Amino acid sequence: MEKGKMKEISEDKKTQFRWSKPMSKELLKFLADEVKKGNRPNNFFKTSSFVAAANMISKKFDIKYLPDHVENHLRIVKNAWGIIAKLRNQSGCGWDENMKMIRMSPDVYNTYVEANPTHEKFLNKKIDMYDEMAVVVGKDVARGSCTKSFEDIVQTCEETINVEDKDNGDSETVKENDKQSTSSVPVESRRGRKRAHEDDSDLQNISAQMGEVVAALQRISKSKLDVDFLYQEVMRIEGFEEEFLGSAFDHLVERENLGKGFLAKNDRLKRIWLEKFKESN
């Protein structure tokens, strides 16, 4: 390659497209800033954000990346987020806030991993870049509330479209400072301050926990079908055309009980259901 010229990424060789760890770090940092600026309305990034992110990566790493590459990488992060959210709300799982780890007893772990081998990397080990993912792909994360510096990130993602790299690393824990006034104030003021402090504590707890919104919605309103999570679970199943998965998703949304049943199944049973649905249509 001639000096000063960017390397071109062939659109016909997507399996060779790689996101190095530094690239992933810069992308998450950039998109987190976009969230703070309000450029993710209704939980969807604006097209301009993807264009700007691609230009930033291209310039910084001297290689031509396109907005589609950014969006594809973000889709991988979202899929991982969906699995983490599901596991955090899974019966038999415990959440270690300090370690950012989903804990599962050995007996339950062995049975679950046998049925869901792709989920193994999220269990009984520290989840890398947990808080960063919350800012970038978390639903309704408070604007500008990322208290952890991205310069403190130790481990970042490296993967191809086929998610080849599964290395694990360490990420630091977000520390929240909770300051309370001890001065003497009128009862009305103390009550108002107490309520404000309680609200602030709730926000801190939400931003510190990954998968907080999805898990909370499922706990608070189990009678309602989480359509967003259902979409993620349907579309991540490999081996089917996107159009077919879209039709299956529409079918499950129209039949809420079927949708709930689909979410309760493991990956093998979900695939069987989709195969049967395909045969019947």
TrEMBL record:
Q: Pfam families given for it?
A: Myb_DNA-bind_3
List each copy of the Myb/SANT-like domain by range.
18-112
- Please give the residue ranges the record annotates as the region Disordered: 165-202
Source species, domain of life: Eukaryota
* Regions of compositional bias (Basic and acidic residues) in chain numbering: 165-179
PANTHER family listed in its UniProt record: EXPRESSED PROTEIN, L10-INTERACTING MYB DOMAIN-CONTAINING PROTEIN-LIKE
Protein name in the entry: Myb/SANT-like domain-containing protein
**Source organism:** Opuntia streptacantha (Prickly pear cactus)
